[in-house]
Amino acid sequence: MNSRKVVFLFMSTFIIGTTAGTLIGLILDWQTHINDIANFRFGGIFMLVITAGIWTVIAQMGFFAYLTLHRLGLGIFGSVKLWNRVQTVLIAFALFDLMFFRHFLFAEEGEAMLGYTVMPLLLLAYGWIVAELKARDTGNRQAFVPALFFMVVVTTVEWIPALSENELTFILNAIVPLLVANTWQLLVLHRLHDMPNGVQPSIAMVQAQQRERNEERKDEQMQKKST
């Protein structure tokens, strides 16, 4: 990773995450923002952009922190297989804590815990899809668990300030830029590694690289069928 790739990763993540966060903010309070625009008041939209940008930067900090943690974990446990097992246990703990502590802190008297399982299950399902894409795209099944850990555990840690408020709009305004930014960072990193260092990265180049990978997979599948 040279400086061009790092700058591209930072800027593209910031733009994509902030855009997604701004859009979800507009959707959640559409009528208010439409009225503001009609009256030439843009303070609310400006605050949406700032808030989405802050959550995106938090996602970027979490990503680089996890890259450091991942290297540290590999060094401590000595093998990918053992480190992946540790991460699997931590994923289970994070999902349980996301359910249990929200119920413990915010549930009304007599309220069942079942309703608090929806959020962790949705996060797990989304993280599973992204991790599967990562493993397929890299051709490395060992990448599945680290990707799932990042999407579940790291995203949950980044999400804590919003979760502590227990207000649905705030929670959604936070999770959308976090998930979009984390997904982009995770799925674009290995593609940046594969690009020549002398080339200026771009989103169009990333898309072209993905199309090439898809064509290669189709060719491999055709060859397997023919044999």
Automatic annotation (TrEMBL):
Composition bias, Basic and acidic residues: 210-227
Keyword terms: Membrane, Transmembrane, Transmembrane helix
Keyword Kinase tagged: no
Record InterPro entries: KinB-signalling_activ (IPR024164)
Region (Disordered) residue spans: 208-227
Record carries keyword Nucleotidyltransferase: no
GO BP annotation list: positive regulation of sporulation resulting in formation of a cellular spore
Chain segments annotated as transmembrane: 7-28, 40-67, 88-107, 113-131, 143-162, 168-189
Name by which UniProt lists this protein: KinB signaling pathway activation protein
